[in-house]
Amino acid sequence: MITNPLCVKAPAKINLFLRITGRRPDGFHELVTLMCPVALYDTLTLTPENEGLHVVCGHPDVPEDEFNLAARAARLFVETAFPEASRPVSGLTIHIDKTIPVGAGLGGGSSDAAAVLTALNRHRGNPLSTPALMELAGRLGADVPFFIPGGAALATGIGDRLEPFSRLPTWTVLLVYPNVAVSTAWVYKNLNLRLTKDEKKLRKFHFKDRFFNVAEHLVNDLEPVTIKAFPVIEEIKRLLLAHGAAGAMMSGSGSTVFGLFKTPGRAESAYSALRNNQRSQNWTLYVADLLIHRPVIA
Q1: Active site residues
Q2: Taking the domains of the chain in order of start, what are their residue ranges?
Q3: 115 neighbors 37 (Cβ within 8 angstroms)
Q4: How many CB atoms lie within 10 A of CB 87?
Q5: Which residues contact 22 (CB under 8 A, 6 or more apart)?
Q6: Neighbouring C-beta atoms of residue 77, cutoff 10 Å
Q7: Range list of β-strands (E), the chain
Q8: Is residue 33 within 8 Å of residue 152, measured between CB atoms?
């Protein structure tokens, strides 16, 4: 697949806005969500091998077999980009250095898969266009296409229809992971869609040509479901707000909670305060910047 080792970084993401708008006959949920990458990264090293496809990761909850999303991405790329007669025959080992927590609502597995697709495509001379690569990513999972172009985006449908969104203040975020892994499938299964529809106030058009407003837009329909099972999420929100966050919310289906801070200094002060809080000894904290704009790739 490759001739020399490739090292790529895969960023986490947060959901700054998440509304569930319906459920399709196939069981997938329709939604409107504003996602933004953050500067918290997994590091993937792709190393050529004589044969086979292997995954190496020290995290106990990350599979090292064909069910790993990054491995599935590599296999799907080769099968799609090259006719069988010209398909690369050499193997690949994907080493994943996990920093993004697993089951945390930060999209780490999806980002890893997108990073593999992008790295292999670039290494092989871009046989797939960006739209084609995003279509391929969509076969792996609803969040994977978001990570292909980079930058903040408003997602609709099941998360597969993306529009770039640059009208975000340059906050610094403090991410707090309470070391509780949450099953996304479980959260959606327990979502009361009737109640979320009754309470719905915002729709996609409210974002058009407007800057994101914390007081108005910081919403997550999945948060009440996860809080019922893990009340620590509500506790973390209170602490973040008490230590100067302009807003605080759970990301995705959880369990990570993020606080938005106007300056890096305020975020670092809150980090120190929470670090010294006896209750937070089992939590993992990260300070990171929003990656609002799509990267420029030469």
Answers
A1: 13, 143
A2: 6-164, 172-289
A3: no
A4: 11
A5: 29, 30, 193, 197
A6: 24
A7: 6-23, 29-49, 53-57, 91-97, 153-156, 161-164, 172-177, 219-220, 247-250, 257-261, 284-289
A8: no
Among the listed residues 252, 240, 209, the one whose alpha carbon sits nearest the alpha carbon of residue 106: 252
- Residue 120 near residue 48 (C-beta atoms within 8 A): no
Closest CA to 68 of 57, 82, 84: 57
Burial of 25 (0-12, 13-18, 19+ CB in 10 A): exposed
Q: Are 44 and 7 in contact (CB under 8 A)?
A: yes
Q: What is the pLDDT of residue 280?
A: 75
Amino acid letter at 103?
Answer: G
Q: What is the CA radius of gyration of the chain?
A: 19
Tokens coding 77:
């790329």
Q: Does domain 6-164 have CATH number 3.30.230.10?
A: yes
In this predicted model, what pLDDT tens digit does every residue of 75-99 receive, in sequence order? 999 999 987 766 776 789 999 999 9
Judged by phi (left if over 0) then psi (alpha if -120 to 50, else beta), residue 274 lies in alpha
Topology alike, domains 6-164 and 172-289: no
Joined tokens for residue 33: 């969500």
130-140 vs 69-81: helix axis angle to the nearest 10? 140
Q: Could you tell me the pTM of the whole model?
A: 0.92
C-alpha span between 116 and 73 (Å, rounded): 7
Tokens of 144: 């994977």
The reply to whether CATH 3.30.70.890 applies to domain 172-289 is yes
Q: Write the pLDDT tens digit of every residue in 56-74.
A: 999 999 999 888 999 999 9
Q: Are 174 and 283 in contact (CB under 8 A)?
A: no
Q: 224-261, pLDDT tens digit by residue?
A: 999 999 999 999 999 999 999 999 999 999 999 999 99
